[in-house]
């Protein structure tokens, strides 16, 4: 949930637009510099050198970013503030803010970040109860937690059946973008201990002292070994999204000529107003339509893909769980659901109350 929409690629060349801008932009800038300085004889070497630098930057860019995004992140890091000004911790007696700022030079200059949390995460709003999070560009996202079946001892036919289920879904049912995320969390050791504790109370265990001793030893050693080895569990998620433009679509299977024009790379956004003028939805109506389409896509993924895979199961994440996963990623540590639920504000900051009259 840290990017907007799907990546745009140049047709036939399969190159991201951000990479093309770097490859072509540096030689053009070099040619512009040569023309301004009058060194026309160096124009060709500068252009070739600029192209080499652009290709090198694209090659060095991490795979999960394009060259333009990577350069922007590096420049943002280089330009970060290096010093923070603040008022003295023990101001002199009688010194107030007016005296500190006397003469126009502000001694008290608290650091104000030049970016918001939304600028990094692109998360605009959480919708409790809807199981969705709204991005800064207005799109809604929802996720399924997928629990795949155990394939440790699966045969070739089992893998082929799973591949066929995914292929059939992608070719016949998938009409929108589908995201896949995998993450790790600390293994719930307490769950293992609780299971052993419950097992020790069973009658068959009490009647078998050897089995009881084995369980007690397992209860003492296994959790400690798992903590020492840093055992983790892998969690898989499938995500769907709905953009505000999608609810204005007239046809679901076949797009109109105007809707096809909106998909043209680079200039397609110019035709968006021609599509959105069909209906004049209010903000609430548009949001309801997006939630309904989001629910339909989640149901389609569950029924046409997850349930078709033998041994697989899934459940939709609540808004609090989505928020907790985002907090885990950006803070670098795990949060409990209670902590995340406290971070979600369900009531407005400013309330409304009626002023009571004063009797004289």
From TrEMBL:
Residues 83-114 are annotated as: Disordered. The keyword Membrane applies. It comes from the Archaea. Residues 83-98 have a biased composition (Polar residues). Residues 125-332 form the TraC-like domain. Pfam families: PrgI_like, TraC-like. Coiled coil: none annotated. InterPro entries: PrgI-like_dom, TraC-like_dom. Residues 9-83 form the PrgI-like domain. Keywords: Membrane, Transmembrane, Transmembrane helix. The chain crosses the membrane at residues 20-36, 42-60. This is Uncharacterized protein. It comes from Halopenitus persicus.
């Amino acid at each position: 949930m840290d990017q907007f929409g799907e990546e745009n690629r140049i047709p036939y060349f399969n190159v991201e637009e951000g990479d093309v801008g770097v490859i072509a932009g540096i030689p053009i800038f070099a040619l512009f510099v040569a023309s301004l300085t009058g060194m026309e004889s160096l124009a060709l070497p500068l252009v070739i050198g600029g192209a080499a630098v652009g290709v090198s930057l694209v090659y060095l860019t991490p795979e999960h970013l394009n060259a333009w995004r990577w350069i922007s992140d590096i420049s943002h890091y280089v330009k970060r503030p290096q010093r923070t000004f603040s008022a003295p911790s023990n101001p002199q007696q009688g010194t107030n803010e007016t005296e500190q700022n006397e003469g126009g030079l502000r001694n008290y200059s608290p650091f104000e970040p030049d970016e918001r949390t939304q600028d990094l995460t692109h998360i605009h709003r959480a919708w409790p109860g809807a199981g969705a999070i709204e991005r800064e560009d207005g799109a809604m996202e929802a996720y399924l937690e997928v629990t795949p079946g155990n394939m440790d001892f699966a045969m070739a036919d089992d893998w082929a059946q799973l591949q066929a289920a995914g292929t059939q879904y992608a070719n016949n049912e998938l009409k929108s973008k589908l995201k896949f995320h995998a993450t790790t969390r600390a293994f719930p050791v307490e769950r293992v201990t609780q299971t052993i504790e419950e097992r020790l109370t069973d009658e068959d265990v009490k009647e078998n002292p050897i089995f009881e001793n084995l369980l007690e030893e397992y209860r003492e050693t296994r959790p400690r070994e798992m903590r020492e080895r840093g055992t983790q569990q892998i969690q898989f998620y499938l995500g769907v999204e709905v953009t505000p433009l999608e609810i204005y679509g007239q046809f679901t299977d076949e797009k109109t000529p105007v809707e096809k024009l909106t998909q043209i790379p680079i200039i397609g956004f110019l035709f968006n107003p021609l599509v959105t003028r069909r209906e004049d939805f209010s903000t609430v109506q548009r949001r309801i339509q997006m939630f309904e389409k989001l629910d339909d896509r989640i149901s389609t993924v569950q029924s046409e893909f997850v349930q078709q895979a033998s041994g697989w199961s899934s459940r939709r994440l609540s808004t609090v769980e989505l928020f907790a996963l985002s907090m885990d990623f950006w803070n670098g540590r795990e949060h409990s659901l209670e902590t995340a639920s406290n971070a979600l504000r369900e009531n407005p900051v400013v309330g409304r109350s009626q002023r009571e009259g004063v009797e004289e």
